Amino acid sequence: MGLVCSCLSGGGGGGKRFRDQYQLGDKIGEGAFSVVRRATHRQTNVVYAVKCFKKVRLTEQDVKDIHGEVGLLKQMKHPNVLNLHGFFDEPEYYYTVMDLVEGGELFDRIVDKV
């Protein structure tokens, strides 16, 4: 696989590496397969949320699931759905660049209202 599997309009582009385009910031979350961090686009100073998937921790099925998620997000265009701005396939990590939404976990907010 190449350095940049896919770059999408807005956050990616030009076949550059992830770290050439983004400055990683604070950790804002963690899931079973990834760590989510803030990242600032170097040219625009727009801040995004970036899922960082360490490849050595992933199974073949995990990789298929990541590519499936990216494929679905590329197709979705709705104001209530996070936008995918870029997907990078680099030697040690996959990176997905998405809208940053402040305010904590959606699940926690739903539970608090019930």
From TrEMBL:
It is an enzyme of class 2 (transferase). It catalyses: L-threonyl-[protein] + ATP = O-phospho-L-threonyl-[protein] + ADP + H(+); L-seryl-[protein] + ATP = O-phospho-L-seryl-[protein] + ADP + H(+). Its EC number is 2.7.11.1. PROSITE patterns: PROTEIN_KINASE_ATP (PS00107), PROTEIN_KINASE_DOM (PS50011). Keywords: ATP-binding, Calcium, Kinase, Metal-binding, Nucleotide-binding, Repeat, Serine/threonine-protein kinase, Transferase. The keyword DNA-binding does not apply. ATP binds at K51. It comes from the Eukaryota. Residues 22-114 form the Protein kinase domain. Its cofactor is Mg(2+). InterPro entries: Kinase-like_dom_sf (IPR011009), Prot_kinase_dom (IPR000719), Protein_kinase_ATP_BS (IPR017441). One of its GO terms (molecular function) is ATP binding. The keyword Ion transport does not apply. Belongs to the protein kinase superfamily. Ser/Thr protein kinase family. CDPK subfamily. PANTHER family: SERINE/THREONINE-PROTEIN KINASE. This is non-specific serine/threonine protein kinase.
